[in-house]
Amino acid sequence: MEMNEFLEFCKQGHPISEEDKEVNELSARCSDEAQKLTMTLNTSYHSTEEIVAIFSELTGKKIDPSFVCNPPFYTNFGKNISIGKNVFFNIGCSFQDRGGISIGDGALLGMNVTIATLNHGLSIETRNTVYPSSVTIGENVWIGSNSTILPGVTIGNGSVVAAGAVVNKDVPADTVVAGVPAKIIKKINTEAK
């Protein structure tokens, strides 16, 4: 299996068990590269341009020069992250991206935001099997500090996730959610000045 096929395989949500040797080998290669690149990112000063270059190598995609990240940043995979324009990551963001994370233009992620795309089987027999499920963050979304976005969640354009929330369900566009688990607090009036 080629790397592009493997990345698409993960995004499609195929279960991956410990017996899937080829898939686990490819995953280990991505993880090793992600570890090397995040160690480089997190252990010395880098200009904004250098950070953009590191993220381009980490994701395998050209990252727009408008991207800003305040390290440290952590990921266990790297290759299934897509980042739009004018995106901001504050310190301590942590991604588990094997299932795919897509972040829309203008998104703002506060300190220590965690995005997870994998889950394990519940039964003992499937506990070592991982189930990837992609996360989509829409355009102009603001995710508050210490929030966790769980596998399979889509956050609609213009929404706000309050600090400390655990988002386990989709969030409609232009909505504020808060709490554990996150619940809708209010709609955002997009016509207000």
Multimerization status: single chain
User: Please, what is the average pLDDT?
Assistant: 94
Shape: globular
Binned strand content: 25-35%
Kindly provide the radius of gyration, computed on alpha-carbon positions and rounded to a whole number of angstroms: 17 Å
Care to count the β-strands?
A: 18
Distance between the termini: 52 Å
- Ranges where pLDDT stays below 50 over 5 or more residues in a row are none
Order of helices and strands: HHHEEEEEEEEEEEEEEEEEE
DSSP helical segment count: 3
- Please estimate the helix content: 10-25%
The strand line-up of the biggest sheet is 1-4-7-12-15-17-18
Structural class: alpha/beta
Largest sheet properties: 7 strands, mixed
Give a description of the structure.
The chain is built from 3 helices and 18 strands. It has helices at 3-11, 21-42, 48-59, and strands at 68-69, 73-75, 81-83, 88-89, 93-96, 101-103, 108-109, 114-116, 118-120, 130-132, 135-137, 142-143, 148-149, 154-155, 160-161, 166-167, 175-178, 183-187. The strands form 4 sheets. Strands 1-4-7-12-15-17-18 form a 7-stranded mixed β-sheet. Strands 2-5-8-13-16 form a 5-stranded parallel β-sheet. A hairpin with a 4-residue loop joins strand 17 and strand 18 (183-187). The longest helix is centred in the N-terminal third of the chain and has 22 residues, at 21-42.
What is the compact description of this entry?
The chain is of the alpha/beta class. The chain is built from three helices and 18 strands.
